Structures are given as structure tokens and as C-alpha cells.
């Protein structure tokens, strides 16, 4: 069994993903030569071995696929190969965050009753995120009170 003592690796890559996406970590370049024979790649998360469990992690030769990323998937992933008594490794630092909100167009109608027979209406189109629209809407309601 292969055990990692430390992650003071010189080869590391920082990656950022949005929640619910899939990550594909590739470790092929950990070896800069073409060895003879079968090589087994070992994958670790935060220094703990990763099991090839098809619901979350899929290990295919030099590749680790992480499905349905969530906050608990943030961490340090390491690919390691023990070849001819030497340990070769590559480290990935992954952070998982909320997906960025997309802009939407909101139609906002205002009606102002005037004295007499006149009334005015206005239509306002906003191309903003939903949370920004709700914030603007609450501010407008507060101002109208």
C-alpha cells in the first residue's frame, strides 16, 4: 500500500469549480518517461486514499473523475505513482463554490395615480441577477411607503 507522508509537492495546480459540476483530474504528466510494464496510479484526498466508488469517484488509469461536486469536495488531491522505488506525484488544490448567478431581464411596471383623470404608467426593464432585482425591488417598496 502506498502512503503519502507530506504534500510539500512542487507540482501543484489550483482549480476552481462551481457546485454540481464534474471535475477531471489528469495525472499523465507525472511521469516524463515511458516506462515498461503496468503502472498503477493512486489517488488521495487530503492525504487519505480514494476508493474507486462509481457513485462519486471514478478512477480511470491516470484520471480521477469527481461527479456532482459540492463543498465537501474542496481539498487537496494527489496522484501518486511508485515506480522503481521512487515516488512521483502531482497535487491539485480544488475549491468548490456556488454557481455564479446569471443575468435575467425583469419587467417592472409602475402606475402613478394622479389627481383628476390622468394617470401615468412606466415600464422598466432590468437586466440583472435575480438577487439584485429583489434588492432593488425591496428598496423601491421602502421608498414608496
Shape: rod-shaped
Supply Rg.
26 Å
**Average pLDDT score:** 75
How many helix segments? 1
What is the compact description of this entry?
The protein is mostly beta strands. The protein is built from 1 helix and 10 strands. The radius of gyration is 26 Å and the shape is rod-shaped.
Describe the protein's architecture and organization.
The protein is mainly beta. It is built from one helix and ten strands. It has one helix spanning about 130-145; strands spanning about 10-20, 25, 40-45, 50, 55-60, 65, 75-85, 85-95, 105-115, 120-130. It has a five-stranded mixed beta sheet with strand order 1-8-7-3-4, with no helix packed on it. It has a three-stranded antiparallel beta sheet with strand order 2-6-5, with no helix packed on it. Strands 9-10 form a two-stranded antiparallel sheet. A hairpin with a 2-residue loop joins strand 5 and strand 6 (about 65).
List the helices and strands and how they pair.
Elements (H helix, E strand, L loop, with lengths): L11 E7 L4 E4 L15 E4 L2 E2 L7 E4 L2 E4 L8 E9 L2 E12 L6 E10 L5 E10 L1 H15 L1
Parallel strand pairs: 1-8
Antiparallel strand pairs: 2-6, 3-4, 3-7, 5-6, 7-8, 9-10
Amino acid at each position: 500500500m502506498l502512503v503519502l507522508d507530506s504534500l510539500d509537492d512542487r507540482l501543484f495546480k489550483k482549480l476552481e469549480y462551481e457546485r454540481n459540476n464534474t471535475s477531471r483530474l489528469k495525472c499523465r504528466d507525472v511521469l516524463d518517461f515511458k516506462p515498461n510494464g503496468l503502472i498503477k496510479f493512486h489517488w488521495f484526498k487530503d492525504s487519505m486514499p480514494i476508493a474507486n466508488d462509481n457513485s462519486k469517484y471514478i478512477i480511470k488509469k491516470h484520471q480521477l473523475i469527481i461527479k456532482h461536486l459540492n463543498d465537501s469536495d474542496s481539498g487537496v488531491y494527489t496522484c501518486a505513482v511508485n515506480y522503481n522505488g521512487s515516488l512521483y506525484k502531482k497535487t491539485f488544490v480544488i475549491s468548490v463554490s456556488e454557481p455564479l448567478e446569471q443575468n435575467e431581464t425583469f419587467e417592472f411596471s409602475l402606475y402613478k395615480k394622479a389627481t383628476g383623470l390622468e394617470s401615468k404608467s412606466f415600464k422598466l426593464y432590468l437586466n440583472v441577477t435575480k438577487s439584485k432585482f429583489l434588492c432593488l425591488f425591496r428598496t423601491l417598496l421602502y421608498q414608496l411607503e
